# Entry
Amino acid sequence: MDDVLYVPTRRRDGSGQVRLEMRTLADGRLALPAYTSLQELVRCCGPQQPWMGIDSAGLEQIHRTTGYDVVLLDARQPPPPPPSTDDGYRRPRSWLQDPLGRPRTS
# Structure
């Protein structure tokens, strides 16, 4: 179906609720990564990435509940964060890469 986008989700916890993989861009905007095909999702996020398909109504519902600023289509995901250090500090996850190669703004 051409009108479906595939959005990465986090693995479900005991509550069974779906949690989206949202990203904060370098300029502070909240981004919803979305992929135009399952092949693109796997290419950009890896074969183990959980996902769900959404249509335009689903995209609108996500916007109402999350308030995202931008949808990034077919953006390559950063690698997973490194494990916590001995002191329990988890290093921040790197920025989502802009699929158009535009430089980050500060």
Q: What stands out?
A: Residues 56-66 form the longest helix (11 residues). Strands lie at 5-8, 23-24, 30-34, 51-54, 70-73. The chain has two helices and five strands.
